[in-house]
């Protein structure tokens, strides 16, 4: 049996990651590919519990290092119990956020060092990296309107941070993509959902071994 493929979606809040992850999963399943669609933080019962600890607005929250440790712990459980077994069975794993979110949010946004975050990932998840990472980029004023329509006034602990914080996150994502063109694909998330989906599928043709 061939090993599966691991594709992640990254980007700021409301850029369309979940929408595009679902469209990609459906397109792959229609081609007969076994797909596991999952998300971070979360994807296993333990990691979903940690998600609630991280994102709930109740309580005092976490300092940046504690936050990074909690994301790494959630990821460790997710990788060990869901992602690696699925890949070993030849499934494609499509994950809505992964290690690059820690590098962009806890690194770019909160100021932790990239090598420290990669060390945590080495300890927690043996450094597993995706085969392909789709970075979706949308201007902040557009995502603000989308999120207002989707969530109203509700924001979680990290989504509710300042505009400056989220600008640093977006810049960090762009820098990661520029530094890793062999893994990252940068996708313009403006426009029709289906047109964006078509561009993403096109970028995965070589991995699929067929035309889109
Ligand atoms: N291309 C698009 N054009 C307009 N609206 C879109 C587009 N793609 C997604 N949306 C809408 O924007 C909102 C955010 O999309 P989605 O939930 O997929 O983003 P996300 O990046 O996963 O967000 P978050 O990080 O907050 O979970 C949703 O209401 C979705 O229906
Ligand atoms: C994996 C991961 C996530 N985050 C942040 C990014 C978002 O604000 C939330 C997740 O919410 P979503 O609606 O599911 O996108 O968590 C982070 O800061 N660091 C991470 O590693």
Automatic annotation (TrEMBL):
InterPro entries: P-loop_NTPase (IPR027417), Thymidylate_kin-like_dom (IPR039430), Thymidylate_kin_CS (IPR018095), Thymidylate_kinase (IPR018094). Its EC number is 2.7.4.9. The keyword Methyltransferase does not apply. SUPFAM superfamilies: P-loop containing nucleoside triphosphate hydrolases. It comes from the Bacteria. GO terms for biological process: dTDP biosynthetic process; dTTP biosynthetic process; dUDP biosynthetic process. Keywords: ATP-binding, Kinase, Nucleotide biosynthesis, Nucleotide-binding, Transferase. The gene is tmk. Residues 9-200 form the Thymidylate kinase-like domain. Phosphorylation of dTMP to form dTDP in both de novo and salvage pathways of dTTP synthesis. The lineage of its organism: Bacteria, Pseudomonadati, Pseudomonadota, Alphaproteobacteria, Sphingomonadales. This is Thymidylate kinase.
């Amino acid at each position: 049996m061939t090993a599966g493929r691991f594709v992640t979606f990254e980007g700021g809040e409301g850029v369309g990651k979940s929408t595009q992850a679902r469209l990609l999963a459906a397109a792959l399943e229609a081609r007969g590919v076994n797909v596991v669609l999952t998300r971070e933080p979360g994807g296993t019962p333990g990691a979903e519990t940690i998600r609630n600890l991280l994102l709930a607005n109740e309580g005092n929250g976490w300092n940046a290092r504690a936050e990074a440790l909690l994301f790494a712990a959630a990821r460790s459980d997710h990788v060990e119990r869901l992602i690696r077994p699925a890949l070993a069975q030849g499934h494609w794993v499509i994950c809505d956020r992964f290690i690059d979110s820690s590098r962009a949010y806890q690194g770019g946004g909160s100021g932790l060092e990239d090598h420290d975050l990669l060390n945590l990932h080495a300890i927690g998840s043996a450094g597993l990296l995706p085969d392909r990472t789709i970075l979706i980029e949308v201007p902040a004023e557009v995502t603000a309107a989308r999120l207002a329509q989707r969530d109203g006034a509700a924001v979680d602990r990290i989504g509710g941070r300042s505009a400056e914080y989220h600008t640093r996150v977006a810049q960090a994502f762009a820098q990661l993509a520029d530094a890793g063109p062999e893994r990252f694909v940068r996708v313009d998330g403006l426009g029709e959902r289906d047109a964006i989906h078509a561009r993403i599928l096109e970028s995965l043709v070589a991995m699929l071994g067929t035309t889109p």
